[in-house]
C-alpha cells in the first residue's frame, strides 16, 4: 500500500466495500441495442449471400416493387440501391442454380436441404418470372437502373411498368395480420385478403422463416421489426403475384421473470427474507406474498412468522407491456412467536415477557387472558406478567393462559399481532 | 482453479466470440460494482449510467485484448474509470483544475485539517455519493483516483497531466468539501 490514510479517508473508502446498487435489467437492453448497431446481424447477411434465400428475396423485392407501383399510393417504394443489387445478382444466380427456386414448391417450407429436388412447378415459376422481367424491361441487362429511376418518379418508366402489370392482369396481393406489435414468443396470424386461389403460397416473415400456408400463423422468437412478403403463384396461369409490407410487424423483447432470495435475519429474529429480482429485460416487478401482500419494489424484503413453504409469485413487465411471471416456494424453517417463553414459574418470580420485546424498542401491548377475559395488560417491557389476575391474586397454576401481543408501527399506522399460550407452574 | 474461475474463463471466451448471453452475464456480474464506481465519478445517476454503458461497450469491444493476466474485474474497472475520466476531459470547461500558484496557497490552508480526521466516522455509501455529487468534476476525479483507485499523487499527476502539487491541493480541497457536506448533513 505505502499510503497512510486518515481515519476519515479510511472510513470513506470502507463505506463502499460492500456497496453494489441492485441490477437493472433495463440497462442491459440499452447496451445490447448499441452492440447490435455496431455489428449488423451476421446471420441475415450470410444467409442472403449464401444460396437459395437470395433468389427468393430478390424475387419478392422485385415483384413487390412492381406491385407497389401498380397500386400506387400507399407505401413507399422498396427499390433502393441494395435491393437493385439483389435483383441483379438474383438474375445472375438464377441462371446458375435453378434448383434454388424450389422453395416455391408446396412441400418445402423452410428446409434448405429440400431444395435440391428439381420440380416442374419451379421451372414454370421461373418462366413466369422471365416473362415478366423481359416484357418489363426492353433492356434486360440492368433492371436495377429501371427500379432506381422509378424512385425519381420517371413517368416514362412508370408507364412501362404499369403496362407490364396490366398486361399480366395481376391484381395486387393484399394481406393483414392479427397483430402488428407483439412480444417475442407470441403467435401472429396472417390472413390473405384476396380470394384464395389454387396455387402455391410463399410467405416470408422476414426472420428467416417461411410458410406455404395461405393463412399461416407464425411465432416470432426474436425482437425486431419485420418486413412481411407474400408471393402467390396461381396454378391456373402460372403468374406470380407478390406484395411486401416493410416494417409490418414489431416484435418487442419479452421479459423473463426469475428471482432468488436470502435469509437476512439473525438466529433469534423473525425469519426475514430479502428477495432478489433476477428477471431479465424487465423494468417493473410485482411481488405477491402470503396473505395477499403485494410489493412493487424491485428487491423487497418480507418477514415470515410461520414455518413451512410459502408461495411467492413474481410478475414482471417491460415498457412494451410484455409480461412474464414465475413462482417459487420459500421454505421457512422455524415458527417465530417473539421468542416468548412457553411457561413461567410462580416460585421463581420471573414474569412473562416475550424475549423479542425485551430487546427491541417497538411500541406494543401485551394482554393475558383467562376464560376469554383479559386479566393483565401492559405496554411496558419492564412490566412482565407475574402470574397474577386483575385483583393481584396468583392465578391457578398448572393452567395455560392465552397471550396476545400487538406491535404498533408508528411510521405507517400498521399493527402486527402475535399470540400464544403460557403455562403457569407453581 | 476453482469452478467459479472456470466459469469466468468460459464467459470471457464467450464474450471474445461475441456471444450475447456471455456478455449479458458479465454485465450482470459486474453491474453493481461498476455502477457504484460510476456513481462516484459523476454528478447524477444519468451521467453514471451513460458512463457505465460506454464503459461496458468498450469492455466488450476490447475484450479480445484481455489475456487473463491480472484480475478481470480490475481490468473492467480500469476501463470504466478511464471512460469516466475521458468523459470529463472532453467537456473541458467542467474540468477546471486549480493552477499551481493557487494550489500551493490553498494547500497550506487545508493541510492543517488532517489532524481533525482521527475521529470516528460512519457514513453510508449513498451519503458519500450525494456529497461527491456536489464536487466539481476535477475534484471528484482526483478524490476518486487517490482514495478509491489507490493512486499516488505522482500517478494522478501523470494520468491527468497536472502537477503533483495540483493533485495534492485538489484532493485536499475535495476532501475538505466532502467532510463539510457530510458532517453538516449527517452528524
Structure, described:
The complex is a heterodimer of chains A (426) and B (187). Chain A is of the alpha+beta class. Chain A has 9 helices and 20 strands. Chain A has a 5-stranded mixed beta sheet. A 5-stranded mixed beta sheet of chain A has the order 16-20-19-17-18, with no helix packed on it. Chain A has a 4-stranded antiparallel beta sheet with strand order 12-11-14-15, with no helix packed on it. In chain A, helix 4 crosses helix 8 and helix 5 runs antiparallel to helix 7 (143-151). The relative contact order of chain A is 0.08. The model of chain A is unreliable at 41-60 and 62-170 (pLDDT under 50). Chain B has 187 residues and is mostly helical. Chain B is 72% helix and 0% strand. Chain B has 9 helices and no strands. In chain B, helix 1 packs across helix 2 (20-41) and helix 8 (153-160) packs across helix 9 (164-186). Chain B is globular. Residues 98-112 of chain B have low confidence and may be disordered.
Brief summary of the model shown:
The complex is a heterodimer of chains A (426) and B (187). Chain A has 426 residues and is α+β, with helices and mostly antiparallel strands. Chain A has helices at 7-15, 25-38, 42-49, 52-70, 81-96, 120-136, 143-151, 155-168, 355-359, and strands spanning 175-177, 181-183, 187-192, 199-204, 210-211, 217-219, 224-234, 240-252, 259-263, 271-277, 284-288, 294-295, 301-304, 308-317, 323-332, 343-345, 363-370, 373-378, 400-409, 414-425.
Amino acid at each position: 500500500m505505502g499510503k497512510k490514510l486518515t481515519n476519515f479517508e479510511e472510513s470513506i473508502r470502507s463505506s463502499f466495500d460492500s456497496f453494489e446498487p441492485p441490477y437493472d435489467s433495463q440497462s442491459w437492453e440499452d447496451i445490447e441495442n448499441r452492440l447490435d448497431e455496431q455489428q449488423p446481424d451476421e446471420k441475415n447477411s450470410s444467409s442472403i449471400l449464401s444460396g437459395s434465400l437470395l433468389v427468393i428475396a430478390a424475387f419478392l423485392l422485385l415483384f413487390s416493387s412492381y406491385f407497389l407501383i401498380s397500386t400506387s399510393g400507399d407505401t413507399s417504394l422498396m427499390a433502393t440501391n441494395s435491393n437493385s443489387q439483389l435483383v441483379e445478382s438474383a438474375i445472375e444466380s438464377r441462371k446458375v442454380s435453378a434448383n434454388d427456386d424450389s422453395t416455391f414448391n408446396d412441400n418445402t417450407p423452410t428446409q434448405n436441404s429440400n431444395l435440391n429436388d428439381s420440380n416442374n412447378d419451379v421451372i414454370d415459376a421461373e418462366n413466369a418470372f422471365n416473362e415478366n422481367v423481359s416484357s418489363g424491361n426492353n433492356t434486360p441487362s440492368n433492371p436495377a437502373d429501371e427500379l432506381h429511376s422509378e424512385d425519381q418518379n420517371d413517368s416514362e418508366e412508370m408507364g412501362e411498368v404499369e403496362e407490364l402489370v396490366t398486361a399480366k392482369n395481376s391484381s395486387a396481393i393484399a394481406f393483414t395480420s392479427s397483430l402488428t406489435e407483439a412480444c417475442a414468443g407470441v403467435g401472429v396470424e396472417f390472413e390473405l385478403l384476396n380470394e384464395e386461389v389454387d396455387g402455391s403460397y410463399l410467405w416470408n416473415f422476414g426472420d428467416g422463416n417461411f410458410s406455404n400456408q395461405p393463412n399461416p400463423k407464425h411465432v416470432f422468437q426474436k425482437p425486431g421489426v419485420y418486413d412481411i412478403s407474400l408471393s402467390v403463384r396461381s396454378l391456373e396461369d402460372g403468374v406470380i403475384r407478390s406484395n411486401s409490407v416493410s416494417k409490418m410487424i414489431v416484435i418487442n423483447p419479452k421479459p423473463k421473470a426469475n428471482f432468488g432470495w436470502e435469509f437476512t435475519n439473525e438466529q433469534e429474529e423473525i425469519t426475514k427474507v430479502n428477495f432478489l429480482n433476477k428477471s431479465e429485460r424487465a423494468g417493473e416487478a410485482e411481488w405477491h406474498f402470503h396473505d395477499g401482500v403485494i410489493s412493487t419494489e424491485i428487491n423487497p424484503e418480507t418477514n415470515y412468522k410461520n414455518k413451512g413453504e410459502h408461495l411467492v409469485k413474481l410478475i414482471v413487465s417491460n415498457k412494451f407491456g410484455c409480461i412474464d411471471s414465475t413462482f417459487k416456494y420459500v421454505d421457512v424453517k422455524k415458527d417465530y412467536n417473539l421468542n416468548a417463553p412457553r411457561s413461567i414459574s410462580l416460585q421463581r418470580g420471573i414474569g412473562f415477557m416475550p424475549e423479542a420485546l425485551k430487546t427491541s424498542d417497538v411500541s406494543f401491548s401485551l394482554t393475558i387472558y383467562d376464560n376469554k377475559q383479559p386479566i393483565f395488560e401492559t405496554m411496558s417491557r419492564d412490566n412482565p406478567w407475574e402470574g397474577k389476575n386483575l385483583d393481584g391474586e396468583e392465578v391457578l397454576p398448572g393452567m395455560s393462559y392465552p397471550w396476545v401481543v400487538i406491535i404498533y408501527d408508528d411510521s405507517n399506522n400498521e399493527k402486527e399481532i402475535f399470540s400464544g399460550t403460557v403455562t403457569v407452574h407453581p | 482453479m476453482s469452478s467459479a474461475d472456470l466459469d469466468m474463463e468460459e464467459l470471457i471466451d464467450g464474450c471474445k466470440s461475441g456471444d450475447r448471453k456471455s456478455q449479458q452475464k458479465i454485465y450482470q456480474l459486474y453491474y453493481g460494482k461498476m455502477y457504484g464506481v460510476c456513481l462516484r465519478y459523476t454528478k447524477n445517476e444519468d451521467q453514471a449510467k451513460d458512463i457505465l454503458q460506454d464503459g461496458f461497450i468498450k469492455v466488450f469491444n476490447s475484450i479480445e485484448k484481455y489475456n487473463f493476466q491480472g484480475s478481470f474485474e480490475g481490468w473492467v474497472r480500469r476501463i470504466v474509470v478511464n471512460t469516466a475520466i475521458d468523459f470529463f476531459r472532453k467537456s473541458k470547461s467542467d474540468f477546471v483544475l486549480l493552477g499551481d500558484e493557487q494550489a500551493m496557497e490553498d494547500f497550506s490552508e487545508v493541510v492543517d485539517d488532517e489532524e481533525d480526521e482521527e475521529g470516528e466516522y460512519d457514513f453510508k455509501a449513498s451519503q458519500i455519493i450525494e456529497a461527491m455529487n456536489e464536487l466539481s468534476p476535477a475534484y471528484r476525479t482526483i478524490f476518486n483516483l487517490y482514495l478509491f483507485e489507490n493512486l499516488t499523487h505522482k500517478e494522478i499527476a501523470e494520468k491527468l497531466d497536472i502537477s503533483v502539487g495540483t493533485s495534492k491541493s485538489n484532493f485536499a480541497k475535495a476532501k475538505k468539501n466532502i467532510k463539510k457536506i457530510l458532517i453538516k448533513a449527517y452528524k
